[in-house]
Amino acid sequence: MARRKFLMGNWKMYKTVGEALAFATAITESKTPLPESIDYAVAAPFTALYALGSALPENVLLGAQNVYFEHEGAFTGEVSARMLADVGVKYVIVGHSERRHVFDESDEWIRHKVRAVIGAGMLPVLCVGEDLRQRELNHTLRVCERQTLSGLAELTPEQVASSVIAYEPVWAIGSGQTPSPDDAEGVIRSIRHVVEQEKGSVAANSIRILYGGSVKPGNIAGFMQQANIDGSLVGGASLDPASFVDLAVATAGAAQ
Ligand code: PGA
To answer: Which residue from 211, 215, 243 has its CB within 8 A of the most atoms of ligand 1, so it is best to mutate?
Structure first.
């Protein structure tokens, strides 16, 4: 079965509750409706999740940007997977490069987080990608392979099949620079191959692998036309509702 394209916004540390609700109203009332042929989620800050969940249109699922892997306990400042599921979260971004680099999250932590997300009945969006130095050293595939295998290590093939990976080269995030669509397709094809070797062909053919990093309405189509790129994880360009709708329309158009 063909994989449906998936457009996911990552709002990072932007939007109060009021601003998040205004986004939901704007896409609900948009003159151009979100095409029904693709899937959607927005990953909002923790504080906006509960309110946003009931304001989003039904076809836009609620996402979170982080989680802690313990069930509950004395972990001041952390939020568990069960708490996220409780407010209606369906997808959780795990191992975003800002978590890996600004907050020093290790592959081991990320693996625990992926397991916790699945354990609470949600789906992980596991981020992988090389930084500029690793790219210059030609280590892109090696880095993506390590992060992918480690992140998915504790999942069964069935759990992998419904999960999501986002290939986000660190140097492309928020920089306005991107790899070419062909280049991103090549890396994503290799990631899928690694999943196949480790988890089998059903998992590899079902898992959705997104591209992320400076995706805009003007460049998204080139990525979405690639056979192995199943959608995109979009930061800056997902904040404005009109831009989100434009990304959706371009994705649906490219997927035809
Ligand atoms: P960007 O961010 O689209 O603003 O580059 C992407 C991301 O960090 O997921």
So the answer is: 215
Cβ pair 115, 154 in contact under 8 A: yes
Interatomic CA distance for residues 61 and 40, integer angstroms:
6
Q: Is the pLDDT of residue 255 over 90?
A: no
103, 126, 128, 214, best to mutate for ligand 1 pocket (most atoms within 8 Å of CB): 214
- DSSP three-state, residue 171: helix
Please list the alpha-helical segments (H only) found in the chain. Answer: 17-28, 46-55, 81-86, 97-101, 107-119, 132-136, 140-152, 157-162, 181-199, 201-206, 220-224, 241-255
Q: Is the pLDDT of residue 76 over 60?
A: yes
CB 211 within 8 A of CB 205: no
What DSSP assignment string belongs to 92-133?
Answer: EEES-HHHHHTS---HHHHHHHHHHHHHTT-EEEEEE---HH
Cβ-contact 172, 208 below 8 angstroms: no
- Does the pTM surpass 0.90? The reply is yes
pLDDT of residue 1: 57
Of the candidates 237, 132, 72, the residue with the CA atom closest to the CA atom of residue 248? 237
At residue 2, what are phi and psi to the nearest 5 degrees? -65, 145
